[in-house]
Design a protein that fits this description.
Elements: H1 9-15, H2 20-23, E1 26-32, E2 35-42, H3 55-72, E3 78-90, E4 97-108, E5 112-121, E6 127-139
Antiparallel strand pairs: 1-2, 2-4, 3-6, 4-5, 5-6
Length: 147
């Protein structure tokens, strides 16, 4: 893993403009060597018909955080990634306020990264969900198939 300091919070907040992260009000707070912290400001469009935070909103926050963390920590020769597996466990919810996600790399290999994330209620610090994903790293396009 090789942290790229130019891929900071400002970089990722700009990257998300016009895409799902901006639409969902995801804001990156901090990025570093093997971690990324973010928030999601909860609005009515994040809620399920039952009035609670939709599971997909929580997964989008966690997956965005792990994905951005992966992009900030790609090894040399890798350009991007694709998520090949996710797992989430939900233990509580919120109906308003802000959810916070702290994502960390638990394995940073040459072709695979594993990330775990915890989503909490930012106000009470109560755990809302745990998340894990596997990222398949994609080589730079100008790299030959044999290098």
């Amino acid at each position: 893993m090789s942290f790229n300091p130019s891929r900071n919070a400002v970089y990722f907040n700009e990257l998300g403009r016009g895409h799902l992260p901006e639409h969902l009000s995801v804001t990156v707070l901090d990025v570093g060597d093997g971690f990324l912290a973010s928030t999601l400001a909860v609005h009515a469009h994040h809620l399920a018909p039952n009035g609670f935070l939709h599971a997909a909103s929580v997964i989008a926050l966690a997956d965005t955080s792990a994905g951005y963390g992966c992009l900030a920590n790609l090894p040399e020769g890798m350009e991007s990634f694709t998520t090949i597996e996710i797992k989430a466990n939900f233990v509580s919810t919120i109906t308003a306020g802000e959810a916070r996600c702290d994502a960390r790399a638990v394995h940073a290999g040459r072709t695979i990264q594993l990330w775990e994330a915890r989503v909490i209620d930012a106000a009470t610090r109560r755990l809302m969900a745990t998340f894990a994903c596997t990222q398949l790293l994609l080589p730079s396009r100008n790299r030959s198939a044999r290098s």
